[in-house]
């Protein structure tokens, strides 16, 4: 199997896993505790793997620190966006905008460019995701969602540079996860300890599943970034939006609807164009 085909397979599997662990968080009535548990499981997994990986070189530590900082800003803006708006206002902006921005950031930072066919695929895929956006006159939610989308694009390019500079995918992922997975569990334990304990008792199996799929999903994305153009990977990863819509329809009985069908067709067309682009 060629590197390009392997990268496509890895990122599509990752997209399914990403949608799955997001469904775990979404299914919970206490999303802070759910996210704290997912992070806690990810931390434990990283701790177990730690003795078997080499420590990153000094320059890579800077990229890990920068990525963690951007990820924390991403979570802050995402929480604020969901505070002011609902899923239909926020999620399409957060996931539809990054592929377009990654094209720009990857060109400026990594010197990577896309062919016209590949760029067309990215645009169509992004427009497919953005077509799910529900427009309102309220501006606080989209403003924070846009900021979160910029953060996604930034940490995607940073992580691409980091994993290519590190001593393997696991080295970068383990140390990155050990740092990123600490703040939310600590915050939840300090502010909502009783609710967190109740969540652990009632939902630990789903939390373990969410944490494991979270780790595996990002490991596959990082691996794919070592094989293929990061803009292609970033775009293909957003197929998780459509996979998430299918999961929501099957598990949460949400209607798929005409809008989601149109978005699914656009995303599929975008994936095909990206796959066959030079």
Describe the secondary structure blueprint for this structure.
Elements lengths: L2 H25 L3 H19 L8 H27 L2 H10 L1 H12 L6 H15 L9 H26 L3 H12 L2 H9 L1 H33 L4 H8 L2 H12 L5 H20 L2
Helix pairs in contact: 1-2, 1-10, 1-12, 2-8, 2-9, 2-10, 3-7, 3-8, 4-6, 4-7, 5-6, 5-7, 5-11, 6-11, 6-13, 8-10
Question: What do you see in this structure?
Answer:
The chain is mostly helical and about 280 residues long. It has one domain. About 80% of the residues lie in helices and about 0% in strands. It has helices spanning about 5-25, 30-50, 60-85, 85-95, 100-110, 115-130, 140-165, 170-180, 185-190, 195-225, 230-235, 240-250, 255-275. The mean pLDDT is about 85.
Q: Describe the largest sheet.
A: none
Helix/sheet category = mainly alpha
Helix run count: 13
Radius of gyration over C-alpha positions, nearest whole angstrom:
18 Å
Total number of strands:
0
> What's the overall geometry?
globular
Low-confidence stretches: none
| Share of helical residues | over 70%
Relative strand content: under 5%
Mean pLDDT level? 85
| Number of separate structural domains | 1
> How far is it from the N-terminal to the C-terminal residue, by CA?
17 Å
